[in-house]
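Figure 2 data, in text form.
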Amino acid sequence: MNPDDAPSTAIEPAAVTAATHTTAPMEASCPPPLQWQEVLREVQQQSNHWTVERPGTTLSGMSLGDGPPIVFLNTLSEPREVWFLLAWLLRDQYRCVLFDWRGIRTPNSAQVTLDLLVEDLLAIVDHWPGQSNRLIATRFGGMVALGAMAQRPSQFLNLTWMGGYARREFSPTERLLVALGKVWPFRARSLLGRRSILRQNHRRWFPPFDETRYDFLSDLTGQVPVKGLARLASVVGQADLRPLLPTISQPVLLVGTEGQGAALRAAGDALAAALPNVRREEMHNTGLIPALTHPHRVAKIVRSFLDSLTMTPTTG
């Protein structure tokens, strides 16, 4: 049950056993592959872990690096760990801020709305008062980003958005699954057919030299509480941000990825037509989670986008 990824699923990493790998020499132009077990351990050890008390829940997250902040916004079924390779690559230039939506890691007793999630994001960035933030989001996370950018335009400078949409229409079956999910007491790993759907959507895009990285995603996403996932999904089904798009003056980079499917690609076209200050990039052979499958390529795109904004004035 995951209408956002349609069909795909989601969190907390199960215990992972570090393995020893040897990396073959590579050409200077091609960066060496990141051994995810080692990077995950270093990110967890070097990050500043924090919590923010909010109505109905306690938000938890981490920050890595000491530069200007970049806030990473997950899609529905993906916890903050999907970003750890990308954050590791960007940590020397930026403070990378990663967190989980309410109800994913800690219980949530408040009704979940888009406005509430925007307020959660604003409470998090208030940890660094007086600093402007850059945003990186996948799918659903970009909806929260747009709300924050509209509310505090001077505090959120730009957005890199992978697989974005301003409106997501649910089918009757998806609406039924969301309703059932709100009362399902188990985690996503208990859902019938989850593993086969996940494999169909994502397995082919992972690097063949590291079989364990896909297994990490499968274990990670299987830990998501279905209730929390369903409550977030209901926000997607109710939100329509199309009227907001013409008011977003900050630069937005829309990143399309191979494997998105026709619906997400059409949604990206609609965003590009409505946003006043937009750029587009295409990533081939990456799938729906490029920050985990091809982090070096995502880091290059992000750096190029942000560097270009510091060299030339923006309009809007």
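Caption note: Residues 39-168+240-311 form a domain with the Rossmann fold fold (CATH 3.40.50.1820).
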